[in-house]
Design brief:
Elements lengths: L11 H7 L12 H6 L8 E5 L6 H12 L5 H5 L19 E5 H13 L11 H14 L5 H6 L8 H12 L3 E6 L3 H5 L4 H15 L2 H4 L2 E8 L16 E3 L15 H8 L8 H8 L2 E3 L2 E3 L2 H10 L13 H9 L4 H9 L12
Parallel strand pairs: 1-4, 1-5, 2-3, 3-4
Antiparallel strand pairs: 6-7
Helix pairs in contact: 5-6
Length: 349
């Protein structure tokens, strides 16, 4: 158990389950039955991208709690939807899970970078640091330490070579979960060489057959799509779903109409369904009305409908996008502020 291999501290989903009788909890655990069907198949590389505060981390933490050996999943899931599914116990807490929270990894890297006394040989940027963190966590597991030492060394030891050495010996593939996969594209947007290095790191893990054999399932979540940057960034081995193309996963991208109706049906709820609909029903994807879950939860707990989503980060990102003036977006934004309607193609944009 570590901070990356089977982490247990600060699991947002487990916290929600433990407080569900006193707060708002929407049961989306039947999503696990869909990921179970992908395990060890050609569809085992899955990416779901969506906007900020739409439950990405909670979903990732839910998968962690279900698959990781370090959890007692029956205490968590026995009263939830997934427990009614036929394949509920087949994969419950059967795997070692590599869970990378890119926000936490970046915070640790910035601390490392600011203190030269912490310097580690050949760890010069966040991609090096990320590989170092994962390998360090794996090496602290007595089952893997010997195999890591035997992993081929070409220059410096890579995570892909370490995982291949481990899986060749144990025959047991990992579950891989990366939350906020796109952080480097957002926080290091002007560092093209670093972005290319990060994508090559991911390609090294997932593009080859030997790399894919190390994983029973891999799940990436983030804001930005994984295929839309340049020829170096295409991870077309991943099956990707987003707000424009949700496939069969539309209802897992936020709160649905029925789920919001259940929330307002609580005797403790003082905001109306209509108010929530006017404020937070921001998307219709594949015919499903989707509400922003963060905003709905805050509105119900605070008994006030206001723009909670806008308070989750600064407006810097919007300013950057507006200033690019891509396809005349600056004028479109001005027209929207003035109350006009603007029609455009989401797919092309």
């Amino acid at each position: 158990m570590g901070s990356i291999l089977n982490p247990v501290d600060g699991n947002a989903f487990v916290d929600l389950v433990e407080s569900k009788d006193a707060g708002i909890f929407v049961d989306k655990t039947d999503f696990i039955s869909k990921t179970n069907l992908r395990l060890n198949t050609g569809g085992k590389l899955l990416s779901l991208t969506r906007p900020r505060r739409f439950g990405k981390t909670v979903t990732a933490d839910m998968l962690l709690a279900y698959y990781s050996k370090e959890y007692d999943g029956q205490k968590i899931f026995d009263d939830l939807k997934i427990s009614k599914e036929q394949n509920y116990t087949e994969h419950l807490n059967k795997y070692d899970v590599i869970y990378i929270d890119m926000n936490s990894a970046n915070d640790k890297y910035l601390s490392y970078k600011s203190d030269r006394s912490l310097y580690i040989e050949d760890v010069d940027d966040i991609v090096d640091f990320l590989q170092y963190l994962v390998i360090r966590d794996l090496k602290e597991n007595s089952n893997y330490a010997e195999q890591i030492d035997k992993a081929p060394l070409v220059g410096k030891k890579s995570l892909s070579s370490v995982l291949e050495a481990i899986c060749k010996h144990t025959g047991r593939p990992f579950i891989f979960i990366m939350d906020e996969w796109d952080l480097i594209y957002r926080d290091y947007r002007n560092e093209e060489a670093l972005q290319k290095k990060f994508i090559e790191f991911l390609r090294g893990l997932f593009k080859s057959k030997s790399g894919q054999a190390c994983f029973s399932f891999a799940y990436l979540t983030g804001i930005l799509p994984i295929k839309k940057y340049n020829s170096q960034s295409a991870l077309n081995c991943f099956d990707e779903y987003n707000m424009l193309a949700p496939g069969d996963y539309a209802r897992y991208f936020g709160f649905t109409e029925d789920e919001v109706a259940d929330i307002v049906g609580s005797p403790d709820c003082e905001v109306s369904h209509q108010n929530l609909k006017e404020w937070y029903e921001g998307y219709k994807i594949k015919g499903v009305d989707i509400y922003n879950p963060n905003s709905v939860s805050k509105a119900v707990s605070r008994n006030e409908c206001i723009s909670y989503w806008c308070g989750t980060s600064s407006n810097e990102e919007f300013v950057h996008l507006i200033n690019t003036d891509f396809q005349g977006i600056r004028e479109d934004v001005i027209n929207l502020i003035e109350g006009d309607e603007v029609t455009f193609s989401c797919a092309n944009f």
